[in-house]
Amino acid sequence: MAIAFDAASSAQGSSVTSLTWSHTTAGAARLLTVGVVISADPLPTVSNVTYAGSAGTEKWSLASQTFNRNALWSKTNPASGANTIAVTFSGTAGEAIAGGLSFTGVDQTTPLDTAATASGTGTPATVNVSSAADDLVVDNLLWWTAGTPAAGAGQTQ
Questions:
Q1: Is residue 135 predicted with pLDDT exceeding 90?
Q2: Among 3, 123, 149, 156, which one is least packed by beta carbons within 10 Å?
Q3: Is the CB of residue 79 less than 8 Å from the CB of residue 25?
Q4: How does pLDDT run across 1-60, given as a tens digit for each residue?
């Protein structure tokens, strides 16, 4: 079975300790990824992500400079149907944006390979990712400057 995109959803807030929103999953062999970017001083962590009340797993978390954080969480075989994604912070996030992406046809034993991360202040934003034929690469960009980032060659935004 090939990996296929299922659904996307998102939420954002200012001066928040959590974000909650609805996301709907369907299909077989599901995977939900939740990307979170926060900005604050002092900088909190993402302490928990749940979907339908079931805890996700942190794939990676990266603090950039002293007041920005970018994190990716996942949930293998999340409940199907419309459910709530809840993201909880260890403190108050000055600005927070989070998005859920769900996929079908994902290997349920090893849905995600080793993460590749990078941080910096230059453009274009790049990171080298090892992948093979039929792999799906999910990225999460923390962008707090003017302008709109654009997907590179071979990417879908």
A1: no
A2: 156
A3: yes
A4: 789 999 999 999 999 999 999 999 999 999 999 999 999 999 999 999 999 999 999 998
Instruction: Give the residue from 42, 40, 24, 44 showing the smallest Cα distance to 32.
Output: 24
Q: Name the residue among 16, 13, 7, 90 with its Cα closest to residue 51.
A: 7
Quick one: CA dihedral 16, 139, 72, 11, positive or negative? positive
Distances from the Cα of 52 to the Cαs of 90, 106, 108, 118, in angstroms? 20, 19, 18, 31
What is the C-alpha radius of gyration for the chain, rounded to an integer number of angstroms?
Answer: 15
Q: How many residues does the chain have?
A: 157
Q: What is the largest CA-CA distance in the chain?
A: 45
Per-residue pLDDT reduced to its tens digit, 91-112 = 999 999 999 999 999 999 988 8
Half-sphere exposure of 94 (CA within 13 A, CB side): 9
